[in-house]
Design goal:
alpha+beta, BirA Bifunctional Protein, domain 2, two-stranded antiparallel sheet, binds 3,4-dihydroxyphenylalanine, 2 domains, 345 residues
Length: 345
């Protein structure tokens, strides 16, 4: 019977529509059932054999079936498209609530912080910051500082020589001579010079073959020891606290006359005596003195017109005292556990 055949076709078509899983699938189903060569068209071709009164009934049914297959396909297409869109949204979704990737913020190395702090202080006192070569000429490292060849005091600083005349600088003092040369005999000269220095030492808790110094030099007319004392007092109070007192002890350096060493009153015990000051109440901080006339003369300054003071200090020592660090190697090992503690020092 044609009617049954049509109903079967409808059943079959609806089933395949239901199980269709893509838009392409649906298009194929559409072509198959509703196309010109499809089975429904085929059925309708056989209508000629039907009784007259049956024809409109079957015709109507065939049209209904066609229509319902068409709307089912459209409905299913919408469902599938919606599903596809949802899946795409899901797979391309960005979770805007995820916390961003954090960049680790660096901080200054403790030595850099200490040096910057001292630089800032001296800039405020009218000094300029200069830097010089770490590979230095024997002339600037020693001779121009009143340490001629074979001077016994050269032994105070065991050196890394590169040639007979070139070495790794053993201190930042050569910048005294280099800077004065540049000024061609005319003051004032007010500089500090931070930088690395090198000595033939075996590394241990208190020695390092490479460490840092900050050199200071002030040359002008009428510069006196009392000026040195004033500047060093300001420095001591700035770095170690407003209650600090200083004392100058006689000492010897070839490039200064007189030479002094500066001590500060102990910041730990206030001068009563403790382990930090080894019971003396005083802590040795730096070497200094009045620039030796020979040093002025060799770098083009007339010692009968100009006088000056100079000092040299070790930022490692200052940092170790101030922050209770007991091993100088901590500064160079790049151990983050150490460095992180001083991120904001
Ligand atoms: N250059 C000396 C050293 O390395 C430190 C020093 C002492 C520097 C006295 C100076 C000074 O300018 O006047 O041991």
């Amino acid at each position: 019977m044609l009617k049954d055949k049509l109903l079967d076709l409808r059943e079959e078509a609806l089933k395949s529509i239901q199980s269709a899983d893509s838009v392409k699938n649906l298009r194929d189903i559409h072509v198959h059932y509703l196309g010109k060569k499809g089975p429904i068209t085929e059925v309708l071709k056989g209508m000629g054999k039907l009784a007259k009164e049956e024809r409109p009934v079957i015709g109507q049914l065939a049209n209904q079936i066609r229509e319902s297959i068409g709307t089912r396909i459209e409905d299913k297409k919408k469902t599938l498209e919606k599903k596809m869109l949802e899946e795409r949204i899901k797979s391309e979704a960005i979770d805007v609530t995820l916390p961003g990737r954090k960049r680790a913020m660096g901080g200054h190395h403790l030595l850099a912080s200490v040096i910057r702090d001292i630089e800032d202080l001296f800039i405020g006192l009218g000094f300029s910051v200069v830097e010089g070569p770490e590979v230095e000429e024997d002339y600037y490292n020693f001779e121009a500082l009143n340490l001629p060849k074979n001077h016994p005091a050269r032994d105070m600083q065991d050196s890394f020589y590169i040639t007979d005349e070139i070495l790794m600088r053993t201190h930042t003092s050569p910048m005294q001579a280099r800077t004065m040369e540049k000024h061609k005999g005319k003051g004032p000269v007010k500089i500090i010079c931070p930088g690395k220095v090198y000595r033939r030492d075996t590394d241990d808790a208190t020695h390092s073959h490479q460490f840092m110094q900050i050199e200071g030099l002030c040359v002008d007319k009428n510069v006196r020891l009392s000026d040195l004392k004033g500047v060093l007092t300001v420095f001591a109070k700035h770095v170690f606290g407003a209650e600090r007192e200083i004392r100058l002890r006689p000492s010897y350096f070839p490039f200064t006359e007189p030479s002094v060493e500066m001590d500060i009153s102990c910041f730990k015990c206030g001068g009563h005596g403790c382990s930090v000051c080894k019971g003396t109440g005083w802590i040795e901080i730096l070497g200094s003195g009045m620039v030796h006339p020979n040093v002025l003369r060799m770098s083009g300054f007339d010692p009968s017109v100009y006088t000056g003071f100079a000092f040299g200090m070790g930022p490692e020592r200052i940092a170790m005292l101030k922050y209770g660090i007991d091993d100088i190697r901590q500064f160079y090992n790049d151990d983050m556990r150490f460095l992180k503690q001083f991120k904001r020092a």
